[in-house]
Amino acid sequence: MLQLKVKRIEEYLTSVYGGAVKVARVEPMCTGEGLADLKGFGYGVPYFVEFEVGGEMKRVVLETMRTEGFGHDHFSDRAAVLLWQHSTFNKLPRHVRSVDVGSFATDCETLKSVGDCCEFFLLTEFVDGHLYHDDLDRIRDNGQMADVDEERCLALSDYLVQIHKVKKDAPELYKRRIRELVGHSEGIFGLTDSYPENLGYVNVKFFVDFEKTCAEWRWKLKRMTGRLSQVHGDFHPWNVMFRKDLDFTVLDRSRGEWGEPADDVSAMTINYLFYSMQMPGEIQSPFMKLFLLFWRNYYDKTADEEILSVVPIFYAWRSLVIASPLWYPMLTPSVRQKIFRFAHRVLQSKKFEFEDVEKYLK
User: What is the pLDDT of residue 42?
Assistant: First the structure.
């Protein structure tokens, strides 16, 4: 079992920052309880570390990855993800900064930069603020939007317009990203495998037909290699941290530095639909206004008409995420059925009509 000891953290941070480090505080971020020696350091639990070096106080976050499912079962799986994250976080505008990728040695308590190790971890800078989903929770709970909600929606749409302008000529990499969309452990097949059997609101036949349709979509999309762009890869409301007004930082880009722009657009906009599905009068909800605002702004500024012929399968993938009993255990069966209905209908469409999104939801 991994052990997280203050002395070992100080030794590791001293090697990273090149000066003697004195740790002032270590807290698991999920509980807020400060601990001196954290027995049984939890996989996937981020730890806040505050320390002094060279007369300056600094704050960082240290975390490993969860081990269960989604292709993270082996030590080498998790190492690959964390090494990639460290190499790419600092390349994306507004992303939280990665400081180092390190490892626990085989004694399971010594932290070192690289070498004889049994588990990797990522060290990032700490950023203040609140996650964007807090804004969406507020709108859902009181049924009203403020001016800043529309402004933030546009700011996030503009952000994707900006980063998607950066293109890369690598046809085989685009084909790989589309292949991973369908067959990767974090993709469509990995998500369908994560669903328990004998659910009352969906059956095996639905998933079999769903996967067959997605395989057909792969053959359609993999030839569109000129679309390869700089992406975040997991651009949803739990990975955006807002501070005052429109000042924000993005967190935890995933799966690839380069990919399909429809991935980022669908990852954020499906959450407006998701929140809308949880409200009475869902079609007229404030979230539908945000959905259209985001899409119109992105579409007008990119003139990317082709994205409408690509995004349906990405919406289908993200639907599997938000309908998941693993990630969202408190959802009602009714909401889950709405999500699956949306996923089925978009997969049947050759072109996504965002201005007429109601037809996928009714």
Answer: 43
